[in-house]
Protein: Glycosyltransferase involved in cell wall bisynthesis
Amino acid sequence: MEKIAIFIPSLRGGGAERVMLNLASGLANKNYNIDLVVVKLEGQYINQIPQNIKVINLNSKRAITSIIPLIKYIKKNEPNVIVSAMGHINIVAIIAKLFMNNKTKVIITEHTTLSLAKKESKNLKEKIAINILKYIYQYSDAIVAVSKDVAKDMSNMLNIPLEKINVIYNPIISDDLIRKSMENVNDSWFYPGEPPVVISVGRLTEAKDFDTLIYAFKKIYEKMKVRLVILGEGEKRSYLEKLIHDMGLDDDVKIPGFVENPYSYIKRASVFVLSSKREGLPTVLVEALACGTPVISTDCYSGPREILQNGKLGKLVPVGDVDALANEIIKLLENKVENRMLLNELKDFTFESSVQKYIDLIRKVLDE
Structure:
């Protein structure tokens, strides 16, 4: 069976890393020989790597310095295909391929709305990297976008014909996710008889806009007894903790950090909220729907409208609109909307569907 290398920066608690680990697991279960190649072996997902996956640690401090170690890996191991994720990692994979000039194929996956990432970035290196993509993505053997809107945005930004971009939704829903959602939560806030909990999950970054969620929660808190839990880590932790303290919400808002099993928390919450300014395809929104928890999301570009089928599966509110977000959360809490299973509506996001589409693409690339 072919050897496939899944190339990612690390195993920190981000959506793209989790998705690529899911893909590696799904391909390994289809009897592919899988190497999980990481720029640096660190992060919360290390202990979630299945035993049938070989881990290759390039042990580099940054993506750019992993080019030589990646070239050495390709020369020694001769993978048939490298599947990479995220712009800077995609660049490294393509450069290594060009240096080697061997039979290894490169499939790049884009998880980000590039136009918004460039517009909002305050990092000059990141903006330069996005500009480089226009010239380097053409040397890949196939391009995957995780949503239709990411594909359209990439086509416009990088002048790539839309028909050359393959849209494959992330492998998110599995039997393991459903099983984990049924596990108990060792947190008294989720016990029967306690006030309802609003939950959100994501990296504590500017793009996730937890500020708006906290301001909206304050308005809800003034009208009813309710609690807020935000699962995740990131550079805005201290800022958000200060905001919570300054608003007098210390007793009813908490940020537990990264947790091994967020699904059991999500399932027991009354409402799941995605407050992002921008996304590519928000994995956690699909996970919340799979857990059966009522969801509210900002109508950010891109992903939520696509996932929620224009509002059929959950409420959409304008980005950054504190009042609209607060009002929709209050409506759900007051109406006590029951959790509902929507797995039939989410078939495109199952392991089986997504992994099979990647297998089809891998076969197509190898046949060319």
In short: The mean pLDDT is 93. The CA atoms of residues 298 and 317 lie 5 Å apart.
